[in-house]
Amino acid sequence: MDLIEEFRKKYPDVLASDIHTAYSPYRVCPLGAHIDHQYGMVTGFALDKGVTLCFTPTNNDQIEMDSLNFPGHIAFNLDAIEAKVGNWGDYLRGAVFSLVQNRYPVSKGLRGIIQGTIPIGGLSSSAAVILCYIKALAFTNGFSIEGQRLVEIALYAENAYVGLNNGKLDQSCEVLCKKDQLLFLDTRDNTYTTIPSTLGMRDYEIAVFYSGVSRNLGKGYNMRVDEAKSAAYCLQAFSGRQYGVYKDTRLRDVPYEVYKVYGDSLPAPFKKRAMHYYGEMDRVRQGIKAWEKGDIIQFGNLMFESGYSSIHYWETGSPELIAIYDIMKKTEGIYGGRFSGAGFKGCCMAMINPAYEESIKESVTAEYLKRFPQYKEVFEVHFCKTADGVKVS
Q1: Average pLDDT, stretch 42-65?
Q2: What's the CA gap between 187 and 262, in Å, rounded?
Q3: Which one of 143, 185, 204, 305 is least enclosed by Cβ atoms within 10 Å?
């Protein structure tokens, strides 16, 4: 469906020169799952599929928004941001809230229609949507936010308004990534680099397998974040290390050597979260070396190991996603894969050899629907290439 055409149908009085677009890609994280909120090191790709917002500025403070993916019309004034109401408009309200709280001069509203190109769940669609809103509002009000500052403003919207205790992985990938390059980000100090695909590296694409069940992060996600922080707090106390307030505690503050000595003293859930964190940090380090050498086979093996750890130590994964993970491991042409996003329903992602596209689609679809025939009408497979980050025009 042509988004600009839909916009013109709804707002036929708007001149073509006054119609603008904001675009944010979806992202995948091949290595570095569930550790950005602990100030860990992560990797990522932006995809050539994402969220597009078609909009026009207004001469007042009125916001109006429609979605081609969700029902309902969202309308409010900039000076009347209410508490969350539990619908898709919360992400728009959160974007305005974040800009206002961070003292950006937001006085002009906009009218728009937004659309995502792949079913939500595991591709950081919420971050992509918020980034589109922030870029559009900044454009409308005559200022620009770029780079790490844009990441911070978008993350604040999710943390302080939407209510997710996530880290900055999603926003960083969607802002900082470059086509055909792997993003390597240290979320403790925000240093990052993009590492090009090396000469002679095997061809690759990103496959996205949508389970047919939309995820809902909810309490499960936030609880695991708290368990990881609790592990860090306990380890610091056991070892006699100086520590501060709980909310500022992260596993990145605790050396692995401390975990090796005191890890067995942790409650079982806390120990598992710590096991995942330290293991994933090591996989990221190994993965960067493999990528720099052009060894996509080793990189893919590490992705499968990350998926195993997410299931057994971070303890996420619906039956549907675990089934897809198991199927991916046995499918020819898949270098490696894992859950995409938090692992509460949604999608799995894989790095694949493009020459096997059709056989991968046929094999994974047949095996998955054999186990879950109820998802025949909604299970989807998408093949993506890497892409640049967010933009507005």
Answers
A1: 94
A2: 25
A3: 143
Q: Is residue 320 part of a domain?
A: yes
Give pLDDT, residue 219. 55
Among 249, 243, 245, 242, residue whose Cα is nearest residue 226: 249
Q: Which of 316, 306, 276 is nearest to 328 (CA)?
A: 306
pLDDT at 390: 95
In b/e form, how buried is each residue of 291-324, taking b as 16+ CB within 10 angstroms? beeebbebbbbbbbbbbebbbebbebbbebbbbb
- Predicted pLDDT of residue 197: 94
Strands 110-116 and 62-67: parallel
Instruction: Identify which of 233, 309, 299 has the alpha carbon closest to the alpha carbon of residue 278.
Output: 309
The answer as to whether 391 is a domain residue is: no
- Residues of the domain holding 249: 205-385
- Whether 208 and 381 have beta carbons less than 8 Å apart is answered as yes
As for how many domains the chain has, the answer is: 2
Average pLDDT over residues 285-309: 98
- Cα separation, 340 vs 28, in Å, equals 6
**364-388: average pLDDT:** 96
Clarify whether residues 210 and 150 are in a common domain. Answer: no
- DSSP code at position 355: G
Query: What radius of gyration do the chain's Cα atoms show?
Result: 21
Do the beta carbons of residue 136 and residue 99 sit within 8 Å? no
Q: Which two tokens stand for residue 346?
A: 């949604």
State how far the Cα of 297 lies from the Cα of 390, in Å rounded to an integer.
30
Would you say residue 390 lies in a domain? no
Same domain, 29 and 113: yes
Contact present, 250 and 229 (Cβ < 8 Å): yes
- Domain assignment present for residue 267? The answer is yes
Distance of CA 345 to the CA centre of its chain: 14
Structure tokens at 219: 């309490």
The CATH number of the domain where 295 resides is what? 3.30.70.890
Percent of the chain with pLDDT over 70: 96
Whether residue 306 is found in the same domain as residue 354: yes
Q: Please, are residues 61 and 79 in contact by the beta-carbon 8 Å criterion?
A: yes
Can you tell me which residue has the tokens 């996003």?
341
Average pLDDT across the chain, whole number: 92
